[in-house]
Amino acid sequence: MGFNFRGLAFKQSMMILAAITVVFGLIFAIMGQKTQDILNKITIENGEETSRANVNYIDKLFNSGKLVGDDIAETLGKRKMTKADLDTFLLHSLTNARNLIPQIVAVVLAYEPGMGPETPKGEFMRLARFTENEIRLVTGANYQDKEWYSSTKEGRTSRWQEPFIGEFVPEPIAVYTVPIFQKDKNGDDVLAGVLAVDMSIEFLKDEIATIPVSNGGYALITSENNVAVAYPKSIAQGKRNREIVVKEIRGNSTVDFDRKNRDSSGLFMGMVAGGEESAVYYTKINSNNWTFMVVWPVQKFLQDQRDTRKLFLILALGGYGVILVIILLISFRVAKPLKELVFAAKKLGGGNFDVDIPKVSGRDEVAEFATAFSNMLSTLKAHIEKEKDMKRIERELDLARNIQLSMLPGAERDENSEDDRHELAPFLLPAKEVGGDFYDFFKIDNDHLCVVVGDVSGKGVAAALFMMVARIILRTMSKNLKSIVDAFNKTNYALAKRNNLMMFVTVWAGIIDLRTGHVEFASAGHNPPAVRHEDGSVEFIPSRSELVMAAMEDTVYTKQTYDLKKGDTLFLYTDGVTEATNDKDELFGNDRLLDALKRGGRQNTSDTCTQVKRELDGFVQKAPQFDDITMLAVKFNGSDEPVWERYEKTVNVAENDTGALKSFVQDILTPMDGAKKMQMKDAWERYEKIVDVIPENQDVLTAFVEGILAPMEGSMKSQMQINIAIDEIYSNIVKFSGATEVTLIVEVRKATLSARLTFIDNGKPYDPIKQADPDVTLPLEERDIGGLGIFIVKKTMDSVCYRRNGDKNELAITKTL
């Protein structure tokens, strides 16, 4: 039996040499990686050893500061003191605190207006401050808008503030703030004020300077917002602490270091204050959420690793060169047919399915492979045509699903409808890639919340498109008409007028008065909502289901009402909930829905939707979902504020019927004191909003202005023109001014239905009024680019004026509503 020189066995024996090269390469790679891991481990251990003692020391110090603040706040919450008692208490508290923690330099007490001693109508702020080896008492004011006070008041929980140089303590301090709660006459906890413990952090710089770090490294401490708190003087170079920022290197770019979604300690590559590339080991300081970092310049940190990799590379290249020469000499003849097949395979991989497969003569394995490859190509051509159509459809459906879900608000902050008087949570799960269910919620004005749930007939892309159109029209009509019945009538007419596909939509929508819980609603063929009362009982709202939307143009809907009590949860849903079917063809039904809501107890709205979905899953089990599942839970918390009396008057703006408005206002104000009435008539009401200059805040400013102007009930045309003016002016500020902050001041005079909007930004000087107006008589293609937006503003507003006030631009527009 002769040796077959044409067989694959001979060829494989030659290729063993190439395999050896691969094995050697893997060995060298593994050795290099292991060496790097060992060096990294040593570095991490060094970082851990350096960090552990210092972090424990800082944690112990700041935890002690927290205990001091908590104890003082608890005492103030339990005891009512006179001003003299408070002064003695503050002096005593600071003395005891400094005996325990010498770094504490001040104890600050600030009461809510009316909650402090001897201040039934005003503010009360008092602090004990250590200075020049003695403790002094100082009185402060204007603290309501301070970050340390407002953030603690709004959050109603203790916290460490970002470090800053205080007004009364002229040195870097870390401030621990604690809300003070006292019992009211009903026994409920109410916020009485805020206690602050000021701790000097100057000592941290000295502490950092004495920490020894190997390989030319150093230590630093950053705050929760990645601002340097303590650092060596060598990296400052005249920069302020807010300019000393830690960056993380990701690929070819750098981003601000963010500890979110990370372990409490770890190693990364980054830069400090724009310096050289460094290895950074970080450790979280649990007491105040700061970060302790050990930094090694990368050139020194990586030197040992580079030397080791260089040695491995030289050895690998030398051995590979020798083996490569041998392999090339032996395998040239063997590799030729394989190279031809590889060349054909590359063309095939690049999308050329008309490539010619080389014919390999002989009876060895390579020849058989070439024949099989040719057969595979023929089969692949047939299958690839089918796959193209399927993948295109899948991509389009995925895109449609993302667009559909992005149109619906995910949380109340998306709609600027957050309000302590209610709590809201939505849930939507389409049965297919896209569906016809939808929900919506938005504020009509400050005191009225509109909630909507709907279900379009059918499924798939057509239902999704019809759903989006129905939602947009209903939302627009509801906001502008402020009547749910009028909105239903107008929306139905718009949908039915061109409903060539004969689709329809069931809708339930209601406007909730957040002051009283009164709900005005309408139902277009939709399931009645359920209510879970504060006492745990549940029921369906008496809701008359009228004709579905888009069926007939002249359908007129009826206003229905319901009064929510404080603590009631309104639960809206589509028939995908009650008509969910298990493998026995049984429906989930109304009774099971009420049981699920009842078992939810006093859960929040998000957990209410989760509870119902959990009950659904347990009922249907493995049965497929045939219909979209949509839920919207709204809890009415109520308000202790008095209800304002509201009067409404509608006039024809085209007839300039100001006399009717004046008579209407005078009839309401006549019972009031005459002087006050005249003062109210001529007074301007002023509102202010400050935002960062980012595109997303345009919607914030528009919603802010709409919320102010909506109660004045001006014309829809005026409101639209004001919205366009906001769009154009804010867009110019974002794109061209270079500003970082915009202040919008809105002033309204209700007696004359006038509004004045003043935009103040810190950008470069620019007077848009001096710019030449575009020649609108020219064809569009011949006009110069730009200037049209400001031109529209000047044409639609009553007046537009600009001035440069110091380093600020001020652009004011006025409009009669």
Count the beta strands.
29
Indicate the overall shape: globular
What is the CA-atom radius of gyration, in angstroms? Answer: 36 Å
Taking the alpha carbons of the first and last residues, their distance comes to: 106 Å
Which stretches are low in confidence, meaning pLDDT under 50 for 5 or more residues running? 673-681
Could you tell me the mean pLDDT? 82
Structural class by helix and strand composition: alpha+beta
Hey, roughly how much beta strand do the residues contain? Answer: 15-25%
Write up this protein.
By secondary structure, the chain is α+β, with helices and mostly antiparallel strands. It is built from 18 helices and 29 strands. Strands 1, 2, 3, 4, 5, 6 and 7 form a 7-stranded antiparallel β-sheet that branches. The longest helix is centred in the first third of the chain and has 71 residues, at 8-78. It is globular.
List keywords for this structure.
817 residues; alpha+beta; seven-stranded antiparallel beta sheet; 18 helices; 24% strand
Compile the SSE list and pairings.
Elements: H1 8-78, H2 83-100, E1 104-111, E2 124-131, E3 134-140, H3 147-155, E4 159-160, E5 164-165, E6 172-183, E7 189-200, H4 202-209, E8 218-222, E9 228-230, H5 233-236, E10 246-250, E11 253-256, E12 265-272, E13 278-285, E14 290-297, H6 298-301, H7 303-349, H8 365-407, E15 422-429, E16 437-445, E17 448-456, H9 460-481, H10 484-497, E18 505-513, E19 518-524, E20 530-532, E21 538-540, E22 560-563, E23 569-573, H11 575-578, H12 589-599, H13 605-620, E24 629-636, H14 658-669, H15 674-682, E25 685-692, H16 697-709, H17 716-737, E26 741-749, E27 754-761, H18 788-796, E28 799-805, E29 808-816
Antiparallel strand pairs: 1-2, 1-7, 2-3, 4-6, 5-6, 6-7, 8-9, 8-14, 10-11, 10-12, 12-13, 13-14, 15-24, 16-17, 17-18, 18-19, 19-22, 20-21, 20-23, 23-24, 25-26, 26-27, 27-29, 28-29
